[in-house]
Design brief:
The structure holds two protein chains of two kinds. By secondary structure, chain A is mainly α. Helices cover about 60% and strands about 5% of the residues of chain A. In chain A, strand 3 and strand 4 form a beta hairpin. Chain B has eleven helices and 25 strands. Chain B folds into three domains: about 1-105 and about 240-305, FAD/NAD(P)-binding domain (3-Layer(bba) Sandwich), CATH 3.50.50.60; about 120-235, FAD/NAD(P)-binding domain (3-Layer(bba) Sandwich), CATH 3.50.50.60; about 320-445, 2-Layer Sandwich (Enolase-like, domain 1), CATH 3.30.390. Classes of the chains: A mainly alpha, B alpha/beta. Chains A and B meet through helix 1, helix 8, helix 21, helix 23 and strand 2 of A and helix 2, helix 4, helix 7, strand 21 and helix 8 of B.
Chain lengths: ~525, ~450
């Protein structure tokens, strides 16, 4: 066992500078005000106090960040990341994990303790504290999701600005971070709230199935269908996102267009989660677990969705364009088509390992057989389990516990992309597209790699980037979200995020590696 | 066949891995007393700075070695019997071999300075040096660094990351000006000073003063000045680590002498990496090149020479890279510190003084010879191809965007360089290629090596 040298370390100048201290106090004050409201303290002019609490929380964090970066020249400065207990799973890291996890448990399962009014009663506590802001934005009292949305957006904005200061020398990072800040604030938070104010349906345009796993739920569809033209447009847009917009964008730019530029979960991971990105596990073992988990969740969400839709269309509901018969045809066409496509000739399909093709085909076949069976036996439950149960289980285990409680609560333990890496079915689909039908890859610069490990360590998705870079091999991995940090932290200029269709079907092959050729000597071989 | 490798740095480990790729049944033993597992020596600084943990600078997980049946042995070889083909370790153990690869690396130079063996005086080469630096940093109020090369500036950055003031003694009139051309060297002087490092040019070490307890307490410089410091970093270059070969009969000069097949004077004994000295290096190349990349190439090469077709070591076009605080540096091909009458160069520097592009070319034929980049990334394969094909400067300037390897959205400075060329020559050259992977792949296909 090698000693961990970072433990021997004693910081010569630990302690904060004056600005950092002031920032901490200010942020602490904001937190204190929020906690006081949580424990039932009622403030006079409470709207003013809420604004004060949010401003001092955000402003304090910004002040802290400003006094961290102003004294440093622009460049990569991960100094002391592994010495600080917040970012090395030390005491502060553990405490924050407990705090965030606890907050999510209350948020999802016991919102009454946050002050959510039950059965139409008025809000109390923390949630009542946010009522004036909610009234101001959409003329409704707050809910736990409104409070969550405000804090979530504030987190992305404040930590996004911090991120931009940290990477101010890197234009890719600056532009990308502006993008996640815009999509969270504008598209995910403000637009839906304003739409509600205008008596239009609540809809987050950048969210899509299967991340938005209840998009195809009956309540949701009825809600949109009953909202007139705008609602219908939202359904059409949602379906277009899944089948047209997202595959096309992923073909051109890789899954990064969504995962690290648009997505809200990704936005939080890239900003609030940035101090923890190095904690993701890079071992081969973790990669094996990752593949089993994420594709299991994908299968689960597909099965759940088929079951839910079948239960809806089984009754030939009025007002829908899809009937019971048409739904069976759709299932046969989509899953049968995908299954057949897998075994076709083109080169980019031939790279898919046989075991993957067999597993996927089996799932497709199972869905087709069971749906057909249910259709002819007139059984509303495709998988012999009520669709509502499936949906409730998915919502509980995946929607709440995995993506929320663990997904964010475990930032300080397993890095910022626990959910995106191990659970997100959206990331799984986009990842498959990226791996087999995309122009995107990370190229390596000849033989310049020195195997230092910065790229692998700071990869939030736990990809062992170095393993490819030191061979001079281009990186095409389903999980890569294209955040570009590996290229940013590389001290030798080895990595670059690029797109090209020229060699799109062979780009993942290990054809460009450093090795010795007996005829040509040692060098970069093609 | 048992192949023993002394040294588990990049050269020895590359040899071991390549041997295993070429043969499933040879027995491979890698011997080192420095560390149990291979680590990236060039990344030692990041452990000290808290960017990485020790395990992060180990490129392979621990199970890798057993899986590939590469035996790792923690031992210090003290002598070699090349007749009986036996290695003798410090603990008295004997290890016999059929083929031996010596990849024992370097050690920091010490030039006989008074006080050079005091406590708190170390180079920065080995894991043990890093541990000494860790210990020496506790309560340290100032460090002095002697020698202005790549390791010296790394050490300055390391202390700086922990807010420990540094006095940096550099013998030359400008940082690393034996390698960097004047403008680039001046850029790095500015960068060092901007960080708040006390850079002393034209200054040598005269003596290290004992603080009374056997530890370093101050240095006296060649200008007679006394600088109080509790730690002295010796970074005036490295020399091959070959002391243990005395009496082995293996021919050495500064390093272990090897022929083009990487063979030493003793039968079945090869030497690679920092410790090896080529008897006939390629024109323009040094006999000892203690850099990561040549170590890796030699490691692959020696494995082929032992198990497959014998191939002369042919390192190809020179390249290297480094990072000086915030400024990345890449070099491809021939970039001399001082230009002879035959070479000329086109140089552009960003107004911020932190980025530059230099293209060196042959005055007579205008063929490009080398590229020197500061704060800008260029693509090795493209630069190599231009140099190999003796491409004329103007053609390179027209297509220069093909070489740009900076991240997306970064400003591109190729037009600025072209503008400079137009202004200097009055010629109206236009850019042709755009920066795109597609164009690069097409270019590389058209110009295959």
């Amino acid at each position: 066992m090698e000693p961990n040298l970072s433990i021997i370390h004693q910081s010569a100048h630990s302690g904060l500078n004056l600005g950092q201290k002031l920032g901490s106090i200010l942020a602490g004050l904001g937190l204190l005000l929020l906690s006081l409201s949580l424990f039932g303290v009622q403030f006079p002019f409470s709207f003013g106090f809420l604004i004060l609490a949010l401003l001092s929380l955000g402003g304090g964090m910004l002040l802290y960040a400003w006094y961290t970066y102003r004294g440093q020249t622009a460049g990569i400065k991960n100094n002391g990341v592994w010495f600080k207990s917040l970012s090395n799973r030390g005491l502060w890291g553990m405490l924050s994990a407990v705090l965030i996890t606890g907050f999510y448990v209350f948020l999802y399962f016991m919102p009454q303790y946050l002050g959510q009014g039950q059965n139409g009663a008025a809000n109390t506590g923390l949630i009542a504290f946010f009522d004036p802001l909610s009234q101001f934005l959409k003329k409704q009292p707050a809910s736990q999701w409104f409070v969550y949305g405000v804090l979530y957006t504030l987190g992305i904005l404040v930590m996004g600005i911090k991120f931009i200061w940290k990477y101010r020398h890197n234009r890719y990072q600056v532009i990308r971070t502006c993008s996640v800040m815009f999509f969270q604030t504008g598209i995910a938070f403000l637009l839906p709230e304003f739409m509600q104010r205008l008596n239009q349906p609540y809809y987050d345009f950048k969210n899509m199935w299967p991340l938005d796993y209840d998009f195809f739920e009956k309540g949701q569809m009825d809600y949109l269908l009953n909202s007139g033209g705008v609602g219908l447009f939202m359904i059409v847009f949602g379906v277009a996102m899944i089948f047209i917009i997202s595959p096309v964008l992923t073909y051109f730019y890789g899954k990064r267009w969504y995962c690290s530029w648009v997505c809200g979960c990704g936005g939080l991971a890239e900003t609030v989660g940035d101090p923890f990105r190095q904690l993701s596990d890079k071992s081969l073992r973790a990669w094996k677990i990752e593949r089993w988990l994420i594709y299991s969740v994908l299968v689960f969400v597909v099965i759940m969705t088929v079951a839910v839709l079948f239960a809806i269309f089984h009754e030939n509901p009025a007002g829908y364009y899809v009937t019971r018969d048409l739904f069976l045809v759709l299932v046969l066409a989509i899953f049968g088509g995908l299954g057949l496509l897998l075994w076709q000739r083109p080169k980019y399909l031939q790279q898919i390992p046989r075991s993957v093709k067999i597993a996927a085909s089996s799932v497709f076949a199972l869905i087709i057989v069971l749906t057909t069976l249910a259709y002819f036996t007139n059984n509303p439950n495709v998988f012999f389990i009520p669709a509502d149960w499936l949906k409730a289980w998915y919502g509980f285990f995946i929607g709440a516990i995995f993506s929320g409680v663990i997904g964010v609560g475990f930032y300080p333990l397993m890095g910022s992309r626990v959910w995106c890496r191990f659970g997100c079915p959206m990331a799984a689909i986009l990842g498959l597209q990226q791996k087999f039908f995309s122009r995107f890859r990370i190229t390596t610069n000849g033989g310049q790699c020195i195997s230092c490990g910065n790229c692998s360590t700071y990869c939030e998705m736990g990809i062992d980037v170095r393993a490819y870079a030191q061979k001079g091999q281009d990186i095409v991995r389903a999980s890569c979200v294209g955040c570009g940090i590996c290229a940013a932290v590389c001290p030798r200029g080895v990595l670059r995020l690029e797109n090209s269709a020229l060699d799109v079907h062979t780009r993942a092959e290990a054809v460009r590696v450093i090795r010795l050729d007996v005829e040509k000597g040692v060098g970069l071989m093609h | 066949m048992h192949i023993a490798i002394i040294g588990n740095g990049i050269s020895g480990i590359t040899a071991a891995r390549t041997l295993r790729q070429l043969s499933a049944d040879c027995q491979i033993t890698v011997i080192s007393a420095e560390s149990d597992y291979f680590f990236s020596r060039t990344a030692l600084m990041y452990v000290y700075m808290g960017h990485l943990r020790w395990k992060d600078i180990q490129p392979y997980e621990d199970w890798f070695w057993e899986k590939n049946r590469i035996q790792l042995k923690n031992a210090h070889i003290q002598s070699i019997d090349t007749q009986a083909k036996v290695l003798h370790s410090g603990s008295g153990e004997q290890i016999s071999y059929d083929k031996l690869i010596i990849a024992s690396g370097s050690q920091p130079n010490k030039y006989g300075w008074p006080g050079q063996d005091l406590q708190g005086v170390h180079g920065l080469y080995s894991k043990q040096d890093l541990e000494a630096m860790e210990k020496g940093s506790i309560g340290l109020e100032r460090a002095a660094i002697v020698g202005g090369g790549l390791i010296g500036i790394e050490m300055a950055e390391m202390f700086h990351s922990r807010h420990i003031p540094v006095s940096f003694l550099v013998r030359e009139s400008s940082f690393w000006n034996g390698v960097l051309p004047a403008e680039e060297s001046a850029m790095i002087n500015r960068q060092i000073r901007e960080q708040g490092i006390d850079l002393r040019l034209n200054t040598e070490l005269k003596e290290i003063i004992d603080d009374g307890t056997g530890k370093a307490g101050a240095v006296i410089t060649s200008t007679g000045e006394r600088i109080a410091c509790g730690y002295v970093g010796l970074t005036a270059g490295v020399s091959p680590n070959i002391g243990f070969l005395q009496g082995s009969g293996i021919a050495t000069q500064r390093g272990i002498l090897i022929d083009a097949l990487l063979q030493t004077s003793a039968p079945d004994v090869y030497a690679i990496g920092d410790c090896a000295e080529l008897q006939q290096p390629d024109p323009g190349r040094r006999a000892i090149e203690p850099v990561w990349y040549t170590g890796r190439m030699m490691g692959e090469n020696v494995a082929h020479n032992i198990l497959a077709k014998k191939t002369a070591y042919q390192p190809g076009i020179w390249f290297n890279s480094a990072k000086f605080f915030d400024i990345e540096y890449q070099v491809y091909g021939h970039v001399p510190a001082q230009f002879s009458g035959e070479e000329a160069s086109l140089y552009w520097e960003h107004p911020d003084g932190k980025k530059s592009i230099r293209i060196v070319y042959d005055r007579a034929s205008s063929a490009v010879l080398g590229f020197n980049l500061m704060g800008i990334r260029y693509r090795q394969e493209v630069c190599e191809r231009w140099i190999q094909r003796k491409t004329p400067l103007e053609k390179v300037l027209q297509d220069l965007s093909l070489a740009n390897f900076d991240p997306e959205f970064f400003p591109e400075y190729e037009s600025a360089l072209l503008e400079k060329y137009r202004a200097e020559t009055g010629k109206n050259i236009q850019r042709r290629a755009k920066r795109s992977l597609r164009s690069v792949l097409q270019f590389l296909k058209l110009n295959q090596a």
